[in-house]
Amino acid sequence: MNYHFLIVDGRHGNDLSSKLRDALPDYDLTILVTADCQEALHLASTHHPSVIFFDMCLPGINGIDFLSAAKKIDHAVSVIMTTSCGNVSDTIETIKHGAFDYLTMPTNIDLFKQVVRKALECNILNRRIRYLHSTKDLDRSEHGEDVMIGSSPKMMEIWKLIGKIADNDATILIEGESGTGKELLAKAIYSHSSRNTKPFLAINCAAMPEALLESELFGHEKGAFTDAHQRRIGKFEHCNGGTILLDEISEMSMISQSKLLRVLENQEFERVGGNTTIKTNVRVIASTNANLMDAVLKKTFRLDLYHRLKGVTINLPPLRERPEDITILIDLFCRIFSVRYGKRIQGVSARASDYLHKCPWNGNIRELKNAIGSAVATAQGEILRLEDILQGKPEMPDPRMNVMEPNEYYAYFVKLLEPRVEAYHPDSIGNLYQQVCQGLEKASIELALKKNGNNQVLTAKMLGISRNTLRNRIDRYSLEQGSEQRSLT
Ligand SMILES: Nc1ncnc2c1ncn2[C@@H]1O[C@H](COP(=O)(O)OP(=O)(O)OP(=O)(O)O)[C@@H](O)[C@H]1O
Ligand SMILES: [Mg+2]
Fold first, then answer.
1. What's the 437 CA to ligand 2 centre distance in angstroms?
2. Does pTM surpass 0.70?
């Protein structure tokens, strides 16, 4: 996908342009540069840039007016204010009016990269996410990157709940295993709320050290700690009027937890190292794949915060508990990756579908999405075959791993047997079924006997078969030979 950047700057335009290309080498960028504010607004309406850099020292228009005009054209655009005049207080004002961040020029290259990446990601997040029951509801022109889909009874309950809560300011806790769509759901709630013209910011509480997280969330004053060369605005200030997703909330430090509680109760906080109380108006959505109550019991999570957060709790079920959704998810992901890889995949073969429905999907929707993604990338035809899917996924479970889920056995055997089945000539008469069943039966019984010191009672129990059946199989496969101490108890 191509992303447009607009630089409104007379002096640093070309320099910023080359820095941008260095900062985002893995993105396809179109960079527009102008020093004229009117032309900039025209370019904003014709090219819909993801990010705009605006030089606060340009004559003719003040930063806040430019910002409001640009936001009127596209509320989701991330505007970064730049200044070389040394006056950062005006710049901070623009942040209160919805600018994404500010940079003092000439800027430190690491900070530049960090801010630019976040601005682009934030813009991508700000695209509206919709929830749908079926891919039939998608327009032909859409390919569904912004869609959260589900028609299983459990997801239908969640859609109903979103309808009720999206538009009030209730704090929401989303619980669910990794890959179940917690972040996507948070974006769906946001985009269906009346706050959807204001920013949505997501922050992963596990991804940074405690002190950094605190300053990231609440900002800091100049001199608050060794590297605090300048005052910085935190996410709660940035996001005024908007919605913040605190991902992996169980990892938040106790200090940040008490500050967060205060924000939730009174919508106020202080920057790190500051005394001024700052008022903010932010909706908080928290998500976790850990059990928060366990963290409370371990005394790493505040009980009062837990109660405050769990007012509205949404439990996103793992994919294995909503198998009805697998078909439409496959359909959606085939569309998404067909567009991304320039393919025309129409669907999956019956064998591939059967396999995809039987996989355990411990990594949930993310794992299914990745599996379809790699299959689409490598597929030759217009229908994904089982072979296309198996190329990338699932990883062959290591047979030495003690517990395999039932469906993992299935995946394992498919991979094991597929080349043998393929090698058969369509007219040939074979006895593969018998060979496989007998081999499997003999191996399981022999191993279980060995494991249980040849105790038949324990072996039958472990295998889940009766003792009569066990005796019968021992005879059938002549498993007695070589046994030294078979117990008859
Ligand atoms: N219902 C859905 N419809 C379409 N895509 C989905 C759905 N649920 C999840 N996805 C996709 O699956 C991937 C994982 O989703 P997401 O990042 O929201 O999961 P998560 O629960 O936040 O995971 P983690 O706990 O690992 O952060 C994303 O690419 C997302 O777009
Ligand atoms: Mg997540």
1. 42
2. no
What would the pLDDT profile of 471-481 be if each residue is shown by its tens digit?
889 988 888 65
Residue 247 Cα: closest atom of ligand 1: 27
For 234, the 3-state DSSP assignment is coil
Cα–Cα distances in angstroms (integers) from residue 416 to residues 97, 351, 396, 407, in the given order: 60, 15, 9, 14
CA of 178 to the centre of ligand 1 (A): 8
Region for residue 342 given its phi and psi (left: phi exceeds 0; alpha: psi -120 to 50; beta: otherwise)? left
Between 401 and 437, name the one with better pLDDT. Answer: 437
Q: Which atom of ligand 1 is nearest to the CA of 184?
A: 18
User: What is the 3 CA–ligand 1 centroid distance (Å)?
Assistant: 23
CA 481 to chain centroid: 56
* Residues whose beta carbon lies within 6 Å of some atom of ligand 1: 148-150, 176, 178-184, 289, 332, 365-366, 369
Task: Give me the domains of the chain, ranges plus CATH numbers.
Answer: 2-125 (3.40.50.2300), 166-317 (3.40.50.300), 327-423 (1.10.8.60), 432-476 (1.10.10.60)
Amino acid at 473: R
